[in-house]
Amino acid sequence: MAETIQGQGGLAIDVRQARYVYPSGNVVALGGVDLAVEHGEIIGIIGQNGSGKTTLTKLFNGLLKPTSGSVIINGIDTAKRTVQQMAPHVGYVFQNPNHQLFARTVQMELEFGPRNIGVPEDQIAERVAEAVEFFGLQEFVEEHPYRVSFPVRKLVGIASIVAMRPPIIIFDEPSTGQDHNTTHIINGLMRRLREQGTTVVCVSHDMPLLADVVERVIVMKSTEIIADASPREVFADKALMARTNLQAPQVTEIALETVVPLGGPVALTTEELAADIASRAGSKSKTSRSSATVR
Ligand SMILES: Nc1ncnc2c1ncn2[C@@H]1O[C@H](COP(=O)(O)OP(=O)(O)OP(=O)(O)O)[C@@H](O)[C@H]1O
Ligand SMILES: [Mg+2]
Fold it and tell me: What CATH code is assigned to 11-89+168-180+199-241?
Protein backbone atom coordinates (compact mmCIF):
# COMPACT_ATOMS: atom_id res chain seq x y z
CA MET A 1 0.00 0.00 0.00
CA ALA A 2 2.67 2.51 -0.91
CA GLU A 3 1.27 4.49 -3.80
CA THR A 4 -1.33 6.68 -2.08
CA ILE A 5 -1.67 10.31 -3.06
CA GLN A 6 0.59 12.00 -0.59
CA GLY A 7 -0.44 14.87 1.61
CA GLN A 8 0.23 18.20 -0.04
CA GLY A 9 1.85 19.99 2.88
CA GLY A 10 -0.21 22.08 5.26
CA LEU A 11 -3.10 20.36 6.98
CA ALA A 12 -5.05 17.28 5.98
CA ILE A 13 -8.29 18.89 7.15
CA ASP A 14 -8.70 22.62 7.69
CA VAL A 15 -12.20 23.71 8.62
CA ARG A 16 -12.82 27.35 9.42
CA GLN A 17 -16.05 28.68 10.84
CA ALA A 18 -18.07 26.13 8.90
CA ARG A 19 -21.80 26.45 9.24
CA TYR A 20 -24.24 24.09 7.61
CA VAL A 21 -27.97 24.58 7.31
CA TYR A 22 -30.02 21.77 5.71
CA PRO A 23 -32.24 23.48 3.16
CA SER A 24 -35.14 21.14 3.99
CA GLY A 25 -36.72 22.49 7.16
CA ASN A 26 -33.99 25.12 7.58
CA VAL A 27 -32.20 22.95 10.19
CA VAL A 28 -28.93 24.37 11.50
CA ALA A 29 -26.75 21.24 11.75
CA LEU A 30 -23.38 22.97 12.24
CA GLY A 31 -23.03 26.32 13.90
CA GLY A 32 -19.56 27.60 13.00
CA VAL A 33 -17.03 24.83 13.51
CA ASP A 34 -13.22 25.16 13.47
CA LEU A 35 -11.09 22.04 13.13
CA ALA A 36 -7.49 21.41 12.08
CA VAL A 37 -6.22 17.86 11.51
CA GLU A 38 -2.58 17.14 10.64
CA HIS A 39 -1.58 14.55 8.05
CA GLY A 40 -1.38 11.12 9.67
CA GLU A 41 -3.55 11.96 12.68
CA ILE A 42 -6.13 9.42 13.82
CA ILE A 43 -9.07 11.24 15.39
CA GLY A 44 -12.41 10.18 16.80
CA ILE A 45 -15.61 12.22 16.77
CA ILE A 46 -18.18 11.54 19.48
CA GLY A 47 -21.42 13.25 20.46
CA GLN A 48 -25.02 12.43 21.08
CA ASN A 49 -27.47 11.70 18.28
CA GLY A 50 -28.17 14.71 16.08
CA SER A 51 -25.17 16.72 17.35
CA GLY A 52 -23.80 17.15 13.81
CA LYS A 53 -21.12 14.45 13.47
CA THR A 54 -22.28 13.07 10.12
CA THR A 55 -22.93 16.55 8.74
CA LEU A 56 -19.40 17.65 9.68
CA THR A 57 -17.76 14.64 8.07
CA LYS A 58 -19.86 14.97 4.90
CA LEU A 59 -18.23 18.39 4.48
CA PHE A 60 -14.84 16.67 4.32
CA ASN A 61 -15.46 14.90 1.01
CA GLY A 62 -17.62 17.59 -0.51
CA LEU A 63 -20.90 15.65 -0.23
CA LEU A 64 -22.09 18.78 1.53
CA LYS A 65 -20.67 22.26 0.95
CA PRO A 66 -20.57 24.66 3.89
CA THR A 67 -23.37 27.21 3.95
CA SER A 68 -20.68 29.63 5.13
CA GLY A 69 -17.06 29.29 6.21
CA SER A 70 -14.47 27.10 4.46
CA VAL A 71 -13.44 23.45 4.26
CA ILE A 72 -9.95 22.84 2.85
CA ILE A 73 -8.99 19.17 2.44
CA ASN A 74 -5.45 18.21 1.42
CA GLY A 75 -5.03 21.82 0.31
CA ILE A 76 -8.20 21.78 -1.82
CA ASP A 77 -11.24 23.97 -1.25
CA THR A 78 -14.19 21.53 -1.37
CA ALA A 79 -16.58 24.31 -2.39
CA LYS A 80 -14.85 24.40 -5.80
CA ARG A 81 -14.84 20.62 -6.37
CA THR A 82 -17.30 17.81 -7.03
CA VAL A 83 -17.42 14.68 -4.86
CA GLN A 84 -15.87 12.85 -7.82
CA GLN A 85 -12.93 15.27 -7.87
CA MET A 86 -12.43 14.85 -4.11
CA ALA A 87 -12.53 11.04 -4.30
CA PRO A 88 -8.78 10.46 -4.81
CA HIS A 89 -8.06 12.64 -1.76
CA VAL A 90 -10.66 11.52 0.73
CA GLY A 91 -12.58 8.28 1.11
CA TYR A 92 -15.93 8.23 2.89
CA VAL A 93 -17.33 5.09 4.48
CA PHE A 94 -21.06 5.57 5.05
CA GLN A 95 -22.82 4.85 8.33
CA ASN A 96 -25.19 2.60 6.40
CA PRO A 97 -23.56 0.42 3.70
CA ASN A 98 -26.91 0.28 1.88
CA HIS A 99 -26.35 3.95 0.97
CA GLN A 100 -22.98 3.13 -0.54
CA LEU A 101 -23.07 -0.23 -2.33
CA PHE A 102 -24.58 -0.63 -5.77
CA ALA A 103 -22.56 -3.15 -7.83
CA ARG A 104 -23.76 -6.65 -8.75
CA THR A 105 -21.02 -8.55 -6.94
CA VAL A 106 -18.68 -7.89 -4.05
CA GLN A 107 -15.74 -8.17 -6.47
CA MET A 108 -17.22 -5.51 -8.78
CA GLU A 109 -17.94 -3.30 -5.79
CA LEU A 110 -14.29 -3.45 -4.74
CA GLU A 111 -13.08 -2.74 -8.28
CA PHE A 112 -15.33 0.25 -8.82
CA GLY A 113 -13.60 2.82 -6.60
CA PRO A 114 -10.01 2.29 -7.80
CA ARG A 115 -11.18 2.20 -11.46
CA ASN A 116 -13.22 5.34 -10.94
CA ILE A 117 -10.15 7.28 -9.79
CA GLY A 118 -8.04 6.00 -12.71
CA VAL A 119 -5.95 3.27 -11.10
CA PRO A 120 -4.39 1.06 -13.87
CA GLU A 121 -6.16 -2.32 -14.37
CA ASP A 122 -3.25 -4.50 -13.18
CA GLN A 123 -3.05 -2.51 -9.96
CA ILE A 124 -6.81 -2.75 -9.48
CA ALA A 125 -6.57 -6.55 -9.47
CA GLU A 126 -3.74 -6.43 -6.95
CA ARG A 127 -5.57 -3.99 -4.66
CA VAL A 128 -8.80 -5.97 -4.77
CA ALA A 129 -6.99 -9.22 -4.02
CA GLU A 130 -5.28 -7.59 -1.07
CA ALA A 131 -8.55 -6.14 0.27
CA VAL A 132 -10.33 -9.49 -0.14
CA GLU A 133 -7.63 -11.14 1.90
CA PHE A 134 -7.36 -8.47 4.60
CA PHE A 135 -11.12 -8.31 5.15
CA GLY A 136 -11.63 -12.08 4.83
CA LEU A 137 -14.07 -11.75 1.92
CA GLN A 138 -12.84 -14.75 -0.13
CA GLU A 139 -16.10 -16.70 0.06
CA PHE A 140 -18.24 -13.66 -0.84
CA VAL A 141 -16.57 -12.20 -3.97
CA GLU A 142 -19.21 -13.56 -6.37
CA GLU A 143 -22.13 -12.74 -4.04
CA HIS A 144 -24.45 -9.76 -4.49
CA PRO A 145 -23.50 -7.20 -1.78
CA TYR A 146 -27.11 -7.21 -0.57
CA ARG A 147 -27.18 -10.97 -0.10
CA VAL A 148 -24.36 -11.12 2.46
CA SER A 149 -24.96 -10.56 6.20
CA PHE A 150 -25.00 -7.00 7.53
CA PRO A 151 -21.57 -7.23 9.22
CA VAL A 152 -20.02 -8.53 5.99
CA ARG A 153 -21.84 -5.87 3.92
CA LYS A 154 -20.39 -3.25 6.24
CA LEU A 155 -16.91 -4.72 5.68
CA VAL A 156 -17.47 -4.59 1.91
CA GLY A 157 -18.33 -0.89 2.26
CA ILE A 158 -15.12 -0.29 4.21
CA ALA A 159 -12.99 -2.46 1.88
CA SER A 160 -14.28 -0.68 -1.23
CA ILE A 161 -12.98 2.65 0.11
CA VAL A 162 -9.73 1.25 1.53
CA ALA A 163 -8.96 -0.27 -1.92
CA MET A 164 -8.83 3.29 -3.31
CA ARG A 165 -6.00 4.06 -0.85
CA PRO A 166 -6.94 7.68 -0.26
CA PRO A 167 -4.63 9.66 2.07
CA ILE A 168 -7.65 10.60 4.23
CA ILE A 169 -10.41 8.17 5.22
CA ILE A 170 -13.61 9.06 7.04
CA PHE A 171 -15.51 6.30 8.84
CA ASP A 172 -19.03 7.00 10.04
CA GLU A 173 -19.78 4.44 12.76
CA PRO A 174 -17.61 1.62 11.34
CA SER A 175 -18.32 -0.85 14.14
CA THR A 176 -22.09 -0.45 14.45
CA GLY A 177 -23.89 -3.75 13.88
CA GLN A 178 -20.63 -5.69 13.84
CA ASP A 179 -19.91 -9.08 15.33
CA HIS A 180 -16.79 -10.09 17.23
CA ASN A 181 -14.90 -11.14 14.10
CA THR A 182 -15.60 -8.00 12.05
CA THR A 183 -14.87 -5.74 15.05
CA HIS A 184 -11.47 -7.40 15.29
CA ILE A 185 -10.84 -6.77 11.57
CA ILE A 186 -11.81 -3.08 11.94
CA ASN A 187 -9.45 -2.72 14.90
CA GLY A 188 -6.64 -4.23 12.83
CA LEU A 189 -7.47 -1.94 9.93
CA MET A 190 -7.13 1.18 12.11
CA ARG A 191 -3.70 0.02 13.24
CA ARG A 192 -2.62 -0.63 9.67
CA LEU A 193 -3.86 2.77 8.48
CA ARG A 194 -1.88 4.40 11.29
CA GLU A 195 1.29 2.56 10.24
CA GLN A 196 0.75 3.71 6.66
CA GLY A 197 0.35 7.34 7.70
CA THR A 198 -3.24 7.62 6.50
CA THR A 199 -5.25 10.40 8.13
CA VAL A 200 -8.30 8.82 9.77
CA VAL A 201 -11.48 10.40 11.09
CA CYS A 202 -13.70 7.94 12.91
CA VAL A 203 -17.20 8.94 14.03
CA SER A 204 -18.24 6.40 16.62
CA HIS A 205 -20.29 5.57 19.69
CA ASP A 206 -17.92 2.64 20.25
CA MET A 207 -15.82 4.06 23.08
CA PRO A 208 -13.60 0.98 23.56
CA LEU A 209 -12.71 1.11 19.84
CA LEU A 210 -11.79 4.79 20.10
CA ALA A 211 -9.92 4.26 23.38
CA ASP A 212 -7.89 1.64 21.58
CA VAL A 213 -7.09 3.35 18.29
CA VAL A 214 -7.40 7.15 18.29
CA GLU A 215 -5.00 9.78 19.59
CA ARG A 216 -7.48 12.61 19.75
CA VAL A 217 -11.20 12.86 20.43
CA ILE A 218 -13.48 15.65 19.22
CA VAL A 219 -16.65 15.99 21.26
CA MET A 220 -19.73 17.51 19.61
CA LYS A 221 -22.89 18.82 21.20
CA SER A 222 -25.78 20.67 19.55
CA THR A 223 -23.99 21.63 16.31
CA GLU A 224 -20.69 22.60 17.96
CA ILE A 225 -17.33 21.16 19.00
CA ILE A 226 -17.19 21.45 22.79
CA ALA A 227 -13.98 19.51 23.51
CA ASP A 228 -10.86 18.40 21.64
CA ALA A 229 -8.37 16.37 23.69
CA SER A 230 -6.74 12.97 24.15
CA PRO A 231 -9.11 10.03 24.77
CA ARG A 232 -7.70 9.77 28.30
CA GLU A 233 -8.56 13.37 29.10
CA VAL A 234 -11.99 13.20 27.48
CA PHE A 235 -13.06 9.89 29.02
CA ALA A 236 -11.79 10.89 32.50
CA ASP A 237 -13.92 14.05 32.42
CA LYS A 238 -17.09 12.87 34.12
CA ALA A 239 -18.84 16.24 33.78
CA LEU A 240 -18.14 16.34 30.03
CA MET A 241 -19.38 12.80 29.53
CA ALA A 242 -22.55 13.55 31.51
CA ARG A 243 -23.14 16.79 29.61
CA THR A 244 -23.09 14.93 26.32
CA ASN A 245 -25.01 11.88 27.57
CA LEU A 246 -22.06 9.70 26.61
CA GLN A 247 -20.52 6.86 28.53
CA ALA A 248 -16.77 6.41 28.85
CA PRO A 249 -15.41 2.89 28.23
CA GLN A 250 -16.46 0.70 31.17
CA VAL A 251 -12.86 -0.01 32.02
CA THR A 252 -12.21 3.74 32.39
CA GLU A 253 -15.28 4.12 34.62
CA ILE A 254 -14.07 1.28 36.83
CA ALA A 255 -10.59 2.83 37.02
CA LEU A 256 -12.08 6.21 37.97
CA GLU A 257 -14.02 4.59 40.83
CA THR A 258 -11.21 2.38 42.10
CA VAL A 259 -7.53 2.91 41.28
CA VAL A 260 -7.59 6.60 40.24
CA PRO A 261 -8.45 7.83 43.79
CA LEU A 262 -5.43 5.79 44.95
CA GLY A 263 -3.19 7.60 42.48
CA GLY A 264 -3.51 4.97 39.73
CA PRO A 265 -3.76 5.75 36.02
CA VAL A 266 -6.94 6.54 34.07
CA ALA A 267 -7.01 3.19 32.26
CA LEU A 268 -8.35 3.12 28.71
CA THR A 269 -7.97 -0.60 28.13
CA THR A 270 -8.40 -3.75 30.21
CA GLU A 271 -4.67 -4.39 29.76
CA GLU A 272 -3.80 -1.07 31.41
CA LEU A 273 -6.19 -1.62 34.32
CA ALA A 274 -5.05 -5.22 34.79
CA ALA A 275 -1.39 -4.14 34.82
CA ASP A 276 -2.09 -1.52 37.51
CA ILE A 277 -4.08 -3.96 39.66
CA ALA A 278 -1.40 -6.63 39.23
CA SER A 279 1.37 -4.23 40.28
CA ARG A 280 -0.65 -3.21 43.39
CA ALA A 281 -1.36 -6.84 44.23
CA GLY A 282 2.33 -7.61 43.70
CA SER A 283 3.54 -4.83 46.00
CA LYS A 284 0.90 -5.77 48.61
CA SER A 285 1.88 -9.42 48.64
CA LYS A 286 5.55 -8.37 48.94
CA THR A 287 4.59 -6.21 51.95
CA SER A 288 2.64 -9.01 53.61
CA ARG A 289 5.49 -11.45 52.94
CA SER A 290 8.01 -9.13 54.55
CA SER A 291 5.76 -8.50 57.57
CA ALA A 292 5.36 -12.28 57.91
CA THR A 293 9.16 -12.54 58.01
CA VAL A 294 9.29 -9.92 60.78
CA ARG A 295 6.79 -11.91 62.81
N1 LIG B 1 -31.07 15.52 5.31
C2 LIG B 1 -31.40 16.27 6.36
N3 LIG B 1 -32.35 17.23 6.27
C4 LIG B 1 -32.67 18.01 7.33
N5 LIG B 1 -32.08 17.91 8.54
C6 LIG B 1 -31.12 16.99 8.69
C7 LIG B 1 -30.72 16.11 7.63
N8 LIG B 1 -29.75 15.28 8.07
C9 LIG B 1 -29.54 15.62 9.36
N10 LIG B 1 -30.36 16.63 9.73
C11 LIG B 1 -30.40 17.29 11.05
O12 LIG B 1 -29.14 17.90 11.28
C13 LIG B 1 -28.73 17.73 12.64
C14 LIG B 1 -27.40 17.00 12.71
O15 LIG B 1 -27.57 15.68 12.17
P16 LIG B 1 -26.37 14.67 11.96
O17 LIG B 1 -26.91 13.54 11.17
O18 LIG B 1 -25.20 15.39 11.43
O19 LIG B 1 -26.08 14.22 13.47
P20 LIG B 1 -25.19 13.01 14.03
O21 LIG B 1 -24.38 13.58 15.14
O22 LIG B 1 -24.48 12.34 12.93
O23 LIG B 1 -26.29 12.02 14.66
P24 LIG B 1 -26.30 10.40 14.80
O25 LIG B 1 -25.47 10.08 16.03
O26 LIG B 1 -27.75 10.09 15.02
O27 LIG B 1 -25.75 9.80 13.55
C28 LIG B 1 -29.89 17.00 13.33
O29 LIG B 1 -30.73 17.96 13.91
C30 LIG B 1 -30.58 16.28 12.19
O31 LIG B 1 -31.96 16.10 12.48
MG1 LIG C 1 -24.54 10.35 12.17
Answer: 3.40.50.300
